[in-house]
Design a protein that fits this description.
The chain is mainly beta and 176 residues long. The protein has 3 helices and 12 strands; from the N terminus they run αβββββαβαββββββ. Strands 3-2-6-9-10-5-4 form a 7-stranded antiparallel β-sheet, sandwiched between helices. Strand 4 and strand 5 form a beta hairpin. The longest helix has 9 residues. The protein starts with 21 loop residues before the first helix and ends with a strand. Pfam families: Flavin_Reduct.
């Protein structure tokens, strides 16, 4: 390294802020819950970490999520017409990274934890809060696939520290 070089925390390959997509920059400033979406069973199980999610209260409740259209999960949801959503807690950061394809998953995505099979898809064993949904519609939305679901089953566990995502980092949201 030459004497004039310095180490810094900025990524030299990232475009300057004024050249980045403003909608993506706005999205990065919105705090999002980190959830795990799963579908299928046995060898056909698929899952993906999803932070672009909206839950609408009502009768029945509705869930909307933005998925990678090329993901195994998008295919499994289309095939089965059902999916499970588990809000992740602060202690599940590694699980979020594995299903977000940011951390290694030796043996496959479902090999590291214990799982409970449900009619909607697998959920992490011991998950206190999760919901089972029936697909009511899908559509292209920008570079994502929007999946709409009606909540058919809901389990509410203890209110524990939640995992949130903002500006490229995880944040802990403590219950009040």
């Amino acid at each position: 390294m030459d004497a004039g070089a310095e180490i810094h925390g900025e990524n030299p390959y990232v475009a300057p802020a004024e050249l980045r997509d403003p909608v993506r920059r706005l999205r990065g400033r919105l705090t999002a819950p980190v959830t795990l979406w799963t579908a299928g069973s046995g060898a056909g199980r698929a899952g993906l970490t999803v932070a672009s999610v909206l839950v609408v209260a009502g009768e029945p409740g509705v869930v909307v999520g933005m998925l990678d259209p090329d993901s195994d999960l998008a295919d499994a949801i289309e095939e089965h017409g059902r999916f499970a959503v588990t809000p992740l807690g602060w202690e599940q950061r590694l699980l979020a990274d594995r299903f977000g394809l940011l951390a290694p998953a030796p043996g496959g995505l479902f090999a590291q934890e214990s799982w409970t099979d449900t009619d909607w898809g697998p959920v992490p064993a011991g998950a206190g809060t999760w919901l089972g949904c029936r697909v009511t519609g899908t559509a292209g939305a920008g570079w994502s696939r929007r999946v709409d679901g009606e909540i058919e089953h809901l389990e509410l566990g203890d209110d524990e520290p939640a995992l949130a995502y903002r500006r490229g980092r995880y944040h802990r949201i403590d219950p009040t």
